[in-house]
Amino acid sequence: MIVNPQLFNYRLIIGSLVVAIAVLAVFSFTNYESVREHQQFLEQEKELVENELSQMIERYDEVAGTNEYLTSQLKDARTDTKRALDSLRMLKSDVSVIARYKAQLLIFKSKNKQLFETIDSLNEINENLEKDKLLAHNELKKQLDANSSLTKMNESLSKTIEKGALLTANSFKAKAYLNKNGRLHETKRANKAETMEVCFTLAENALTEKGDKELYVQIVNPKNNVVADKGSIEFGDSSLIYSVKTVVNYNNKVVDVCTNVMSDPSDQPWSKGTYFVSVFYKDRKLGSTQVILD
Fold this sequence. Notes:
Layout: H1 5-63, H2 71-90, H3 95-164, E1 169-180, E2 183-186, E3 195-202, E4 211-220, E5 232-235, E6 238-241, E7 244-250, E8 255-262, E9 273-281, E10 284-293
Antiparallel strand pairs: 1-2, 1-3, 3-8, 4-7, 4-9, 5-6, 9-10
Helix pairs in contact: 1-2, 1-3, 2-3
């Protein structure tokens, strides 16, 4: 069999072309896949950078307004980060872009670290100050409560001492007398009575202030009128109508006191019935007794 050399050459050329086309197709496909994978990688890297920038901005937003000292620095850092994020989103993903923004991201991270370390330090200081303030407040409250308690105790003690220092009296007695020839004779007869003797005893009290004590005797007859009315004396918002005033020098010892109440002509004759006798020191009643006249 005789082969035509020219035909053989055509077949060889065609075969070579087919192989070349196949190799080129494989190479093109492989190269396409490589480029596609590379582009996907770049897109992923770009997305990662964008996410980190977004997280930084969120962190800035979280602490914004919580620290007045660093407000300006936080604002500037957020502005720079937002500007970088916006620029990155507008650019296509390529190696130079990713490399440039990664480098910028590292700078942001470094500044970010220093800034937030400062914020954390200040927050810790503020927390400690708040704790100290709370402790100081609690201690102050305890002290105020203690002072209040002491004040109440002192007030109670003062009231007790004041009460214990009050002038007191006992053994109240009263008798009606008839003045006959300059001598007094006790009587139970209303129509003969001219004067009434009132006696009592000031008790011993070391806490009572020494000095002259003005004592007032009030005798009220059965008609509810004050015998030998000497007018009234004012004690703050109260007043007292009295029959006689007597001044006693008190030196913290027992003092026996007697005083006579002479009736006025308008009191004559004395009425039958019960006479109420009371002794006052200022506006405080020391004690009382009564006399019944027939």
